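Quick one, T. Sequence first:
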Amino acid sequence: MRLKKIFVSEAFRSIMAAVLCSIIGIIVGFIILLIINAEHAPKAISVILKNFLYYRNGGKQLYYFGQTLVKSVPLILCGIGVLFAYKSGLFNIGIAGQYCIGIGISLWAALAFHLPWFVCILLAMLSAALWACIAGLLKAFCNVNEVIAGIMLNWISLYLVNVLLQNEITMNISRSETYSIAERSPQSMIPTLGLGSIFHDNPYVSIAIPVTIIVAVVIHIVLSKTTIGYELRATGLNKHAAKYAGMKDKKNIVLTMALSGAIAGLAAALYYLTDIQPWKTASVVPGMGFNGIAVAFLGGLNPIGVIFAGFFIQHITQGGSFIDTKYFNPQIADLISSIIIYSCAFMFLLKTLISKLIGEKRKCC
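Structure tokens:
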């Protein structure tokens, strides 16, 4: 009886749909590898799937496992930001711009003012939340579609961050990339609390990893167990009904976008303040925000599921750096990740098909 309940549950269908999306991406990627070089394709796909297990040395395995975890942090948090807005009836496609604003403010606070790490994070979250509020206010009071507003704000945020950081205080102008935080402002770096030693002295492993898990759990509790979470979801389902029930629909829309943006700002700060990579003057909006949309759906629109989905996508992407470049371009791993992400567009279709299959089996039995 319990097994039947599990099989017909929403969680089971979401997990199965996510697994199918992943399998489709891996199979299509393997076919492409076979077309490019059939002889070395099996080894290449094996290396991509192994990622840090490619190394036989246990120390190196731990180091690159830690590297994968660090790079999963912004992807997971961007996914949670998208999920939070979506659960409240809003499609925050502007998460990429809010992430971008978080990068700019956190790096500016660190390199220009040498502020402590926690202040840099708070400023990044606040600025990203205020940026998201623009789309929220337009939606609440002018009925402007948040998708259109978000896309426009993405590009504005990119150019603002380029302008903000492109100066001698924060950036090496000759290389068009920001200075090392470790060299210029070590107090702005996120503390490791000894976590790096667990991963073979990986200097980038920090408290960002446990903080990400805590945020996922908190968001899950807020959405499913609290009054404010109920109000936000109710407003998303039907703002007119919510308003009739005495809920402040406009306030809830703006609040939803603000909180979603704050999570994106947190994602940016927790990643860039590890000093794992600098900001380079860019002409393209960071893909992390857009990838977060797919991770949210691959994770079954569940904060806990998003943790695993984000890690899996980053695991595949990181694995591509280990393939033999004599036969394949390392970006083949990005292609596989992209196919998995694209497959997420069919999540609802796959869930429907799984429901039908389960229903037919129950009838037969």
